[in-house]
C-alpha cells in the first residue's frame, strides 16, 4: 500500500505567504524537502493570502495558474511529460486535497504527505519502517472519507445499505486493526530499549543524545565523534533510524552517543506520535547535544522550533550543550567553549566537516558527564509505592528501613538530573519527602 512511486516524477510546487504566523512556511526549505524526496521541480506557484480558502485552500485564479503551468510544461522541451504531482507547502484538509485533484487531474500532496514520503525512503530498520507505516496509516485514516462515493446508494436504513458504504467501513476497520498491531510491536521494541537503558544505568554509563534541526550536521558530527559510517548527506532527514555508539572521553571514561531524527518547522503530530519510542532516546538521555547550523540565516528560528519539539516530548529540562556547527562557513569564527556563571560549558563552536573544535566538544561533554550526585534520606508514606519502585529501578536505593508509623525510610543516591526527571514524571515536588541531604 505504501510503496513509493518508481521515480521520474515532476512536481509543481505551491507556496502561499499568509499573514498568520501559524500558517507561515519557508519556501527555500520547501524546495529542499521536495528535492530530498527525489522529485524534479518544474515550476513554483506563489501567492499571498490572509486566510486559506475553505474549498481549494488557494483561490480559483491560482488553480487556473497551476493548470497553465502544467500545460506549459507539457508543451516545452524540458517537459516531455506532464507534471504528475502538485505539492503544497501547507497542510490540506481531505476535502481540499480531493477538490484540487478533481480540477488539476493529477495527484495532490500536502506538506505532511511529502514529509511522510521522505521518511518512507529513509527508514531502513524494522522499527523505523513500522514507525513510518504507523504515521502513514494515521494520516490515511483522516483521508478515508467518501472514497467509494460512486458505489453508494441514496437511501439508508436496514436492508438499504450500499456496497460503497460497506467497503468504506471495511477499509476503516482494516486500518484500525493494522494501527493496533503496529502499536503493539512498537511497544515491545520500546520495552527492549528500556531494558538497554537500564543496563547502561547499572553500568553507570551516561547517554548523550544528539538533537537539532534537520540538516544541521548531526550525522557528520556523530561520525566524527564515533568514527562510524552513518549516512551524512546534504539532504533533509538524511538520518531517520536512531544509532547508538560508545565514545571514549579524554580522561578515559565512556558515554553512549545517540544520533536521532532531525526536527523541522511544524513537525507533523503524526510523526511525533509515531516516533515517540525513538524520541525517548532523547527524553531519557543524561545530556542533549543540540546541534545548530551556525551559518544558517534562520538559526534563531530553527533553535526555537527544536525547543518546541523538546518541550512536546518532555525533554526540555535535560541538561543541554549547544553545538554551533559549520563555523567553517563563517568568516573569522574559531573553535571555542562558552561557559555560564558557574564555569560549566553551555556552548561549543565546531566544524565537523573540517574536524575543528571536536577536542573541545569532547572536553565539554566530559565536564557535564561528571554530574553532581543527589544524596539524601527520604521518608515515603505507604501510598508512595510507585516512587519507591522507580528509585529501585534506577538502582538509587542504598538502604531501606521503616519507622513506627509505617513510613519507609530510604537512603538514596542518584544523578541530580534523574531526581529532577522523577519529579516531572510523577508531577510532584519530591523535596517534600527529604529528611536530610
Secondary structure topology:
Elements (H helix, E strand, L loop, with lengths): L9 E9 L8 H10 L3 E10 L10 H16 L9 E4 L5 H11 L2 E3 L1 H12 L3 H16 L21 H40 L3 E7 L5 H9 L16 E6 L5 E6 L9 H6 L1 H8 L3 E7 L5 H14 L7 E6 L10 E4 L5 E5 L8 H12 L3 E8 L4 H9 L3 E6 L5 E8 H11 L7 E3 L1
Parallel strand pairs: 1-2, 1-3, 3-4, 5-7, 5-8, 8-9, 9-11
Antiparallel strand pairs: 6-7, 10-11, 12-14, 12-15, 13-14
Key features?
15 strands, globular, single chain, 437 residues, alpha/beta, seven-stranded mixed β-sheet, disordered N terminus, Rossmann fold, four-stranded parallel β-sheet, 40% helix
Strands of the largest sheet, in order across it?
A: 6-7-5-8-9-11-10
CATH top level assignment of the largest domain: Alpha Beta
Q: Radius of gyration, Cα only, in angstroms?
A: 26 Å
> Distance between the terminal alpha carbons, to the nearest Å?
58 Å
Query: What is the SS-derived class?
Result: alpha/beta
Number of domains: 4
> What series of H and E elements makes up the topology?
EHEHEHEHHHEHEEHHEHEEEHEHEEHE
Which sheet architecture does the biggest sheet show?
A: 7 strands, mixed
Per DSSP, the total helix count is: 13
Q: How would you characterize the overall build of this protein?
A:
By secondary structure, the protein is of the alpha/beta class. It has 4 domains: 10-109, GTPase HflX, N-terminal domain (Rossmann fold), CATH 3.40.50; 122-153 and 161-186; 202-369, 3-Layer(aba) Sandwich (Rossmann fold); 373-436, Alpha-Beta Plaits. 40% of the residues lie in helices and 21% in strands. The protein has 13 helices and 15 strands. A 7-stranded mixed β-sheet has the order 6-7-5-8-9-11-10, sandwiched between helices. A 4-stranded parallel β-sheet has the order 2-1-3-4, with helices on both faces. Helix 3 (94-104) links the parallel strand 3 and strand 4 (107-109). The radius of gyration is 26 Å and the shape is globular. Mean pLDDT is 79; it is low at 1-7 and 146-162.
Amino acid at each position: 500500500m505504501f510503496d513509493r512511486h518508481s521515480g521520474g516524477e515532476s512536481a509543481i510546487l505551491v507556496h502561499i505567504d499568509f499573514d498568520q504566523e501559524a500558517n507561515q512556511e519557508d519556501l527555500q526549505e520547501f524546495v529542499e524537502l521536495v528535492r530530498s524526496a527525489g522529485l524534479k521541480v518544474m515550476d513554483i506557484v506563489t501567492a499571498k493570502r490572509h486566510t486559506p480558502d475553505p474549498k481549494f485552500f488557494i483561490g480559483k485564479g491560482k488553480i487556473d495558474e497551476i493548470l497553465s503551468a502544467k500545460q506549459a510544461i507539457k508543451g516545452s522541451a524540458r517537459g516531455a511529460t506532464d507534471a504528475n504531482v502538485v505539492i503544497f507547502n501547507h497542510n490540506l484538509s481531505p476535502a481540499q486535497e480531493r477538490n484540487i485533484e478533481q480540477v488539476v487531474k493529477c495527484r495532490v500532496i500536502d506538506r505532511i504527505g511529502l514529509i511522510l514520503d521522505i521518511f518512507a525512503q529513509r527508514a531502513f530498520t524494522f522499527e523505523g519502517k513500522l514507525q513510518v507505516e504507523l504515521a502513514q496509516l494515521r494520516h490515511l485514516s483522516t483521508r478515508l472519507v467518501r472514497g467509494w462515493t460512486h458505489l453508494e446508494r441514496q437511501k439508508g436504513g436496514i436492508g438499504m445499505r450500499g456496497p460503497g458504504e460497506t467497503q468504506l467501513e471495511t477499509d476503516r476497520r482494516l486500518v484500525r486493526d493494522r494501527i493496533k498491531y503496529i502499536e503493539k510491536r512498537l511497544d515491545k521494541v520500546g520495552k527492549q530499549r528500556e531494558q538497554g537503558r537500564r543496563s547502561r544505568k547499572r553500568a553507570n554509563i551516561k547517554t548523550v543524545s544528539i538533537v537539532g534541526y534537520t540538516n544541521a550536521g548531526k550525522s557528520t558530527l556523530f561520525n566524527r565523534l564515533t568514527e562510524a559510517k552513518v549516512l551524512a548527506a546534504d539532504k533533509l532527514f538524511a538520518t531517520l533510524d536512531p544509532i547508538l555508539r560508545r565514545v571514549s572521553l579524554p580522561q578515559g571514561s565512556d558515554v553512549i552517543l545517540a544520533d536521532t531524527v532531525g526536527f523541522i518547522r511544524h513537525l507533523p503530530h503524526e510523526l511525533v506520535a509515531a516516533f515517540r519510542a525513538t524520541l525517548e532516546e532523547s527524553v531519557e538521555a543524561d545530556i542533549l547535544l543540540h546541534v545548530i547550523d551556525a551559518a544558517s540565516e534562520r538559526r534563531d528560528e530553527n533553535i526555537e522550533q527544536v525547543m518546541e519539539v523538546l518541550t512536546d516530548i518532555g525533554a526540555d529540562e535535560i541538561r543541554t550543550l549547544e553545538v554551533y556547527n559549520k563555523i567553517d562557513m563563517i568568516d573569522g569564527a574559531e573553535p571555542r567553549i562558552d561557559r555560564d556563571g558557574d564555569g560549566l560549558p553551555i556552548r561549543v563552536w565546531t566544524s565537523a566537516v573540517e574536524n575543528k573544535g571536536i577536542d573541545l566538544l569532547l572536553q565539554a561533554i566530559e565536564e557535564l558527564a561528571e554530574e553532581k550526585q543527589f544524596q539524601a534520606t527520604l521518608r515515603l508514606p505507604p501510598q508512595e509505592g510507585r516512587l519507591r519502585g522507580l528509585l529501585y529501578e534506577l538502582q538509587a536505593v542504598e538502604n531501606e528501613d521503616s519507622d513506627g508509623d509505617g513510613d519507609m525510610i530510604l537512603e538514596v543516591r542518584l544523578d541530580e538530573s534523574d531526581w529532577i526527571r522523577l519529579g516531572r514524571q510523577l508531577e510532584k515536588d519530591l523535596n517534600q519527602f527529604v529528611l536530610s541531604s
